[in-house]
């Protein structure tokens, strides 16, 4: 097993170090190599995704990624900004399916911004299409408006587009995932306004006929946003496009108490994947040793399960995280009265201790 480790910027190096520590505690045989990505890669090599980093990622079975970005790079030309590294990796590795589970751990129910009865037992999976939509559609740019009410004024534009194969493959991923869970898929679109999403809805409906054992319903994205905060437990698998998925998955993240708890996986057709926390590089807390490393540690568990065929090791990480939460340890973002506040490193150490304790008990 070969893992490319790309810690990135901000809190990235701090949280990835904890996930690597946890992986090492499992006594698995894996090779790993670390490389620069994002703003730190731009500083060192003049590009957020240097050739050597891309090569390492392509050759690995899986990529463990921290986060990239910092406000100080916001004035760079767009192709040189740290976030472009993620888009480049997704594109070059063909990572079209993004899995974002939102699970509310019983110990963290009170950290959610919703009432406990609305989130207790929440377990939903958002599957976001990752390589199409308005984020990649061409043409895009700035120009002088050629027509319309403001013809002659400066304007910017992007293009929303999806091809049939792109929709079909993400729909298959969603229906297959639902079969392993509650057998319900909600496809989120904006078919009432956007041609692209009427097409999305039609194609998902067609694919759904091949999965008669999975219930399919459709929801407009504005309603989905409302239902996510009103009655989140009614969802099982949500499948949606790149932009709607980006927004809804962050909303779902907060339901669970903290974005610092949410792992994510981005997979291609051969199960090679990039695993990263759902949050960003959190420049506001970088270097302070207070970031929650659990989303990254849980991303490493997803990596073991989906790309490295080590489901048992993944289970061990996930139960160790549960045990640590049950013992009352909390980083600042999930802290509650009566719990012990710990930093990034202590949280990682506690997960390692829970794993080794279980191992020594046999
Ligand atoms: P963010 O997710 O970095 O931070 C949002 C808030 O959540 C901040 O208050 C932060 O302190 C907190 N937070 C995030 N992760 C945390 C953790 N593990 N533990 C405790 N608190 C945590 O989003 P942002 O502030 O909008 O963006 C910051 C930078 O990250 C920007 O440059 C943005 O472009 C980049 N970004 C990168 C990714 C990525 O690498 N995949 C994703 C989103 C944003």
Q: Briefly, what is this?
A:
This protein is an alpha/beta fold and 362 residues long. Nicotinamide-adenine-dinucleotide (NAD) binds next to loops.
Q: How big a fraction of the residues is strand?
A: 15-25%
Distinct bound molecules: nicotinamide-adenine-dinucleotide
Strand segment count: 14
Could you say what the CATH topology of the largest domain is called?
A: Isopropylmalate Dehydrogenase
Approximate shape: globular
Sheet with most strands: 10 strands, mixed
How many distinct folded domains? 2
The whole-number mean of residue pLDDT values reads 94
Radius of gyration: 21 Å
Adjacency order of strands in the biggest sheet? 2-1-3-12-11-4-5-10-8-9
Determine and state the CATH class of the largest domain: Alpha Beta
Distance between the termini: 25 Å
What proportion of the residues is helical, as a percent range? 25-40%
| CATH homologous superfamily designation of the largest domain | Isopropylmalate Dehydrogenase
What sequence of helices (H) and strands (E) makes up the elements?
Answer: EHEHHEHEHEEEHEHEHEHEEHHEEH
